[in-house]
Amino acid sequence: MERRHQVFSVDLLERYATKGRGAITCMATGNDVIVLGTSKGWVIRHDFGVGDSYDIDLSVGRPGEQSVHKVFVDPGGSHCIATVIGSSGADTYYTHAKWTKPRILSKLKGLVVNAVAWNRQHITEASTREIIMGTDNGQLYEMAVDVKDKMEKYVKLLFELKELPEAFTGLQMETASVHNGTRFYVMAVTPTRLYSFTGIGSLEAVFASYVDRTVHFMELPGEIPNSELHFFIKQRRAVHFAWLSGAGIYHGDLKFGVQHSSPNGDENFVENKALLDYSKFSEGVEGVKPSSLAVSEFHFLLLIGNKVKVVNRISEQIVEELYFDQTPDAVSRGIFGLCSDASAGLFYAYDQNSIFQVSVNDEGRDMWKVYLDLKEYAAALANCRDALQRDQVYLVQAEAAFAAKEFLRAASFYAKINYVLSFEEISLKFISIGEQDALRTFLLRKLDNLSKDEKCQITMISTWATELYLDKINRLLLEDDSALDSNNTEYQSLIKEFRAFLSDCKDVLDEATTMKLLESYGRVDELVFFASLKEQYEIVLHHYIQQGEAKKALQVLQKPNVSMELQYKFAPDLIMLDAYETVESWMTTKSLNPRKLIPAMMRYSSEPHAKNETHEVIKYLEYCVHRLQNEDPGVHNLLLSLYAKKEDESALLRFLECKVGKGQPGGPEFFYDPKYALRLCLKEKRMRACVHIYSMMSMHEEAVALALQVDPELAMAEADKVEDDEDLRKKLWLMIAKHVIEQEKGTKRENIRKAIAFLKETDGLLKIEDILPFFPDFALIDDFKEAICSSLEDYNEQIEKLKQEMNDATRGADNIRNDISALAQRYTVIDWDEQCGVCRRKILNVGGDYRMTRGYMAVGPMAPFYVFPCGHAFHAQCLIAHVTRCTNQAQAEYILDLQKQLTLLCAESKNVSNGGLSEEPLVSVTPMHKIRSQLDDAVASDCPFCGDLMIQEISLPFIPPEEAEESESWEIKPHNHPSQRSLSLAV
Description:
The protein is an alpha+beta fold. Helices cover 39% and strands 19% of the residues. It is elongated, with a radius of gyration of 65 Å.
């Protein structure tokens, strides 16, 4: 195998690593730190992380030759423990990475430490925490060292082998946090046994518990130069172990923190145990035992002689051999040992003076092949790096299943292949052997593995799978006539599976093609199911209606995404199938327009129904009218027509009397067509309803005439409805009276008596003389004597009342004439200094500014004037000017016109004198006096200061528009002068 393809490679790290301090006797690594022990008692530390190196002499003060027996480094490379053996015995030292001098662990005096277990989860740079040390006399000690103390905190004896005292040669420890503390897992090996310890609490408590219970161990007899125990660490956790024993390599997986049924023993944390016999990788008859061991994730590195054989842990086959570039003097002694650096992921080998580095280059790249050869398919898939590798794993599984005639299983594996075999090749495999079920399984699994972007492939495969399903269903029906029975589980499960497939693939299947397939195979139920999935509800409804399953159809219509038009389209068929359920569905459906359901309701209503049967259409229409407050005239007319066809007229009358529309302000009382209602009621001979409609249309005469044919009492009630028209009311009552008199068939005297009783019911509206013409001419007056006398008495009372009213009116007229006469003689006394209310001049004096007002009667030298009962007095000219100015424009023009006419008439008059009294009488009817009277009424009807004119002036502004300019001249405007200064005063 070429080097570039090798997983493991060897490089010389340092040729003379001991710097002349002796030969290498032991080595330990951790976190890129290498610590060497030499034959002269020196510890040499190489820190490749920081590029530093120093050595410590542990033989100082010790007589004779000293040699470092074992050296140990923690995974972090900070703490180091070394055991030195010399002629004076054994001593154990501790040193820290930052120390230049070691510290002897005096409590371990005389003990040879062969193995150390570090607490990897809790160790820190400043403290070792709990560590376990195994000695060559079969004892385990617990110790802890804090850097600040520079000495061990304590040393405790944990365990001692008494049954078979052997030296502990390997020791490992792991911890896991559990709900009630920390669980310790400890493994220790001797040349022939592997011991397992576990427990919760402290190390001392864990080992103390084994006083009362048996220690679990695995014994593998055989001799080996050096028994070793190694843990492989991945992500700071041990995942598997290996024990280099005399019988072989005992290894297995580690599961920490898992509760097992066994309270003790390695069953608590060891799984998948196996023993690798040395004979499997030895050329000779007898296996050659390795001298050292290192463990990687998938391989064992076995040091045999001067080379390292790399054995795959899973396949137990040698995959590589590593050779070292040793110096000639070191070849004879060979490689001493191997060690691993879990933190750096490196392995090291050493001889007497050189250090070799073993690097790992992607050791898991071919593990999928290893697992595949072992038929561990799950592990093979877990280690695949790309799709092509996974395809090869699936192909092997598929072909194995195909060869074993497990075709369904093979189909599942074939469906996962994307590159190794084409879709067509795999399909032909199943078609050639006639395995339709396996082919269908392959297609279904292939659909699961396709991406959403491969739409064409998904659609075609789904359609093919649909046809295979249909073919399988038909074959089941042909093979077994009883397949349709509910007891046939295979058929029923296949139908269920097919419907689930349609539900999953409804969005990728071509709608038209799929429906055509279902129809061609006669699968009506599945066709309806698929149509429902695709929301083709019209097809679904057609099917249910043809099958007479109205409830299922109504359930479909109740779905939220069903078009409302389908409600109207299938309403006639549904109401004929199940009227009750259909109407109940209508009443629970929102946004339903009852007008569009009228054809369906009329179809239902045209069918004969039993007398006691609930008319579902009437029930629905009543719901629309009374509950939904529907105002559609068509709905109201239909309900009215259905009421009219019922023999019982009470429902019709209640509907006509119900004021449906009065819920809205200003709305009509009804929404049906009254003319249509009248025609319908006349046709169905619902006379009481006709009377109500006539009355509602204010056709009271027709209402009373029709009511007289049905019931006179009804006619009387209709006549009483007319209240605002007394003549019409009397006319209606006369019609009733005539009908009553003409319909009476008793004796004449009895008829007259009933007629007179009828007059009393009219509450005085009709008199005996009103109904006399309705009696025959040969009726005797004696029969009406009492009624006529009563009527005459009423007339006499009315005449007396009229006389009294006439007398009262005569007296009132006389009083009015007397008042008029007294008014003409009325006078008022004016003081000599009384002033005019307008000009403020004296009323009785004439100034130069006043001329005699034309048309007025002059009294000496005084000007005409007006005096009001309130005491105010005005010159005639001043009053006219004031009223004209204060009244509205129309009234002012009227006054000026009268004054102009009066002036013209005065100019023509020849009887006017300058200061004397007029010769015409005080009361005159000449045109001038008529005009003057009109002028008096216009200007002097009431006092301008006390009457309506003054009240109207309240709303006028104080400053009239014509005085606006004068008002503005009085306004105080600011005048800023340059010399003036404004001062702001604090308030």
